[in-house]
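Subject: design request, 263 residues
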């Protein structure tokens, strides 16, 4: 039905995107799921009410695919786009000096350029939908950069900066902007290997003694964050500790990071 609220989610085939899709669908929203992983999209679709979901196999780096997917989704939603959830991303860890050209191009293209592409493509629909919101997924890595996560921190700081700028630019259009900065989430992203090692990102998180934030908690806090008039949505103990230290103890935080990161 055209009057239902509508959310379009990238990275909808797993992890945070899947959890957000399930939560919003339970609340009666129409859901558009986008991902490069067709099997993941179908798995998420099977978890949602029939007739309330469209799926879109797309690469967020491709601007034409963005335009085509949103045009198809808007036909199903009656032209509504209440929330664009710019969530697709990959994780690449390890020292910058050891990164390959392909790793650099992929993480910048997907995690940053893909978010920019989404914001630009969705702007007309968001502007035409009263009370709409752009939600961008950043990370606790966008609060303070951590050794071994230089590329990831760089693109997530970019997402944070973009979100802060659009919060100003789009205020006059009535479009809310939220940037989500969660602690480490136990999702398939953490299965990626740290560059130059046999360890996964999950292994590194555990070795540092850091906690995982449940993905369902992230979805709930995103839901709540849309309603609150607060740009930064900081989720999880590690992210909150990092934000506190970055604001009030920057010198101590720098020393701690140079010794090996948060504990």
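Subject: RE: design request

Done. Sequence follows.
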């Amino acid at each position: 039905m055209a009057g239902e609220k509508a959310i379009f989610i990238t990275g909808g085939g797993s992890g945070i995107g899947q959890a957000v899709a399930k939560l919003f669908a339970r609340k009666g929203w129409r859901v558009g799921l986008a991902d490069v992983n067709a099997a993941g999209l179908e798995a998420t679709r099977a978890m949602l009410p029939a007739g309330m979901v469209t799926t879109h196999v797309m690469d967020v780096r491709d601007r034409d695919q963005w335009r085509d997917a949103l045009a198809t989704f808007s036909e199903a939603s009656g032209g509504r786009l209440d929330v664009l959830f710019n969530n697709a991303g990959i994780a690449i860890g390890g020292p910058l000096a050891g990164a390959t050209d392909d790793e650099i191009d992929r993480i910048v293209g997907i995690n940053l350029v893909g978010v920019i592409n989404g914001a630009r493509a969705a702007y007309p629909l968001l502007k035409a939908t009263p009370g709409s919101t752009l939600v961008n997924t950043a990370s606790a890595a966008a609060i303070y950069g951590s050794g071994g996560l230089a590329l990831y921190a760089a693109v997530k700081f970019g997402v944070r900066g973009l979100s802060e700028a659009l919060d100003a630019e789009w205020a006059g259009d009535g479009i809310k902007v939220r940037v989500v900065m969660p602690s480490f989430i136990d999702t398939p992203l953490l299965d990626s290997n740290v560059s130059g090692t046999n360890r996964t990102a999950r292994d590194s998180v555990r070795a540092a003694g850091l906690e995982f934030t449940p993905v369902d908690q992230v979805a709930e806090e995103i839901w709540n964050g849309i309603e609150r008039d607060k740009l930064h949505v900081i989720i999880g103990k590690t992210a909150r500790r990092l934000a506190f230290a970055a604001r009030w103890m920057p010198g101590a935080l720098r020393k701690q990071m140079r010794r090996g990161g948060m504990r």
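The mean pLDDT is 90.
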